[in-house]
Amino acid sequence: MPGETFVLGEQKVRPDVYVRWHNAGGVRVVTGTVGIVAAVIKSSWGPLGEVITMESPGDIAGKFGSGDGPDTIREIFMGGASTVLAVRAGTGGSEAKVELDDDADPTPVKVVRLLTKYPTTRPFTVTIRDSLEDAAMRELLLHENTRQLERITFAKGEDEPDQLVEAVNAGSKYLKAVKLADGSGTLAEALDAPLADGADPTVTGSDYADAFEKLERKFFDVIVVDSEDTGVHASLQSFVGRMISEGGGRIIGVVGEPTSVPFGTRKTNAKGFNDFAIVYVGNGFETASGPVGGAKAAARVAGIIAASPYNASMTHVPITGSIGVVGELTNAQYKEAIQSGMLTFSLNPDGQAQIDYGINTKVTLLADEDEGWKKIRRTRTRFELIDRVVYTLHPYLGKWTNNEDGRAFVITIANGIIQTMIREGGLESGQLIVDPDNPPQGDSAWFRFTDLVDLDSIEKLYLDFGFQFSPTV
Fold first, then answer.
1. Which residues contact 33 (CB under 8 A, 6 or more apart)?
2. Is the Cα dihedral 136, 137, 138, 143 positive or negative?
3. From start to end of 22-82, where are the E strands?
4. Could you tell me which residues are beta bridge partners of residue 101?
5. pLDDT of 409-455, one tens digit each?
6. Digit-coded pLDDT (tens) for 156-172
7. Residue ranges for the chain with pLDDT beneath 70
């Protein structure tokens, strides 16, 4: 019957019309991640060494409490990130606790111990009282300072310690409970009894390094820390480099130091990275709530990078909510900062802080690097192309024969990705070919990208005005 299928290269015996089909490049293209930032922080709340996913700044207080670490996450969201993967770093610490008495008279017995779920110094207090709504119920109120965090009800009667322990362990986001004794069976009232003896974990440079490992199998665009310690920054650079070299992800790390660090030291520290995957933020910006600098300014930049399209320039991006610059530089200093690979903020004509120049810390090029690696935009474009090609082709390993037909599939898919990125304004040209210097062998095939030109933004305009005093005759 007409339409019988054939295998490429096969010659049939009978005359007929034979058909076959192949994938001409219509595969699902896998793009890089967008809008996801990882953060390693110190905090007064949350599990240690676990990756916590947040999709709203409203999640921060409940999951990490308050302080510099949570504020760093808040700056990431302010920059426009859609998701933050945060890890609380540290070891040790202790849970805060309080022990509740029964109502025995004259010698009360401690019947229930309440403990915080995590090591913390948060100033929690608890109140035990009769319910104001139901005479058959009692309630536990948990406060932090004057803010009520939880209200947990439990049955009134002769087994209140058991009822409270069950209700707390089943429904509290903050507390866990242990029964100590039966006692009289009825709990004594308590008013703002403090949970005491809590301690936050200690956090060292090695704790940050341990926390980085928890992020190894996660997908994100940018990573920051809440630390301004240069040792932690070096550890972050090492982690970013390992993720890139081992195929764990093409990511960018962002660090910052406050303007209290001498300008010359900041220049030296920025230049010391010399890394296209590290951005160093060297000053800060002013808001109505106060100055933002150092690690928090770095977090804002991280959020902006992650939220922006891969082909968007960071140069002159305004900082939302800013009203000035912290540590504004002279014209000569701005030039010195650029030459040192330091990203800085300057004032735009509207009086807002803006990213002065969208650069990373790459200042000295290696033999296989070009000037494009010094720009955040072009580095992200190159990362995007690599990710799209790698992640799109990877599922097909072992499914194509290493012949002209199979290699044509690879070329068709990769060149289709390039054409898409040309239409998106990320690339100007490029194509994939079989490497003429390395012919295919066995299960290996070598390919080479040629004429690959990624685009930059117009960031420097040179205008030549030809004025005349009077018309020439």
1. 219, 220, 221
2. negative
3. 36-41, 51-54
4. 110
5. 999 999 999 999 999 999 999 999 999 999 999 999 999 999 999 99
6. 999 999 999 999 999 99
7. 1-33, 248, 473
Q: What is the pLDDT of residue 26?
A: 53
Instruction: Report the C-alpha gap between 263 and 120 in whole angstroms.
Output: 36
Secondary structure letter of residue 438 according to DSSP: S
Q: Which residues share a beta bridge with 345?
A: 355
The neighbour count for residue 472, using CB atoms within 10 Å, is 5
pLDDT for the residue numbered 12: 65
Burial 133-143 (b: 16+ CB within 10 A, else e): eeeeebbbbbb
Report residue 439 as tokens. 């012919």
Q: What's the rounded Cα separation, in Å, for the pair 358 and 431?
A: 28
Instruction: Tell which phi-psi region holds residue 178, choosing left (phi > 0), alpha (psi between -120 and 50) or beta.
Output: beta
Burial status of residue 317 (CB atoms within 10 A of its CB: 0-12, 13-18, 19 or more): buried
Question: Other CB atoms closer than 10 Å to residue 36's CB: what's the count?
Answer: 21
Residues 72, 59 contacting (CB under 8 angstroms): no
Question: Secondary structure of the chain: what % helix, strand, coil (to 5)?
Answer: 30, 25, 45
Distance CA 99, CA 111 (A): 7
**Contact criterion met (CB below 8 Å) for 112 and 188:** no
Comparing C-alpha atoms, which of 12, 11, 91 is closest to residue 47? Answer: 91
- pLDDT number for residue 1: 46
Q: What is the pLDDT of residue 22?
A: 46
Q: What is the largest CA-CA distance in the chain?
A: 116
The Cα-based distances of 318 to 134, 309, 345, 379 in angstroms read 55, 16, 9, 21
- The secondary structure of residue 359, as a DSSP letter, is B
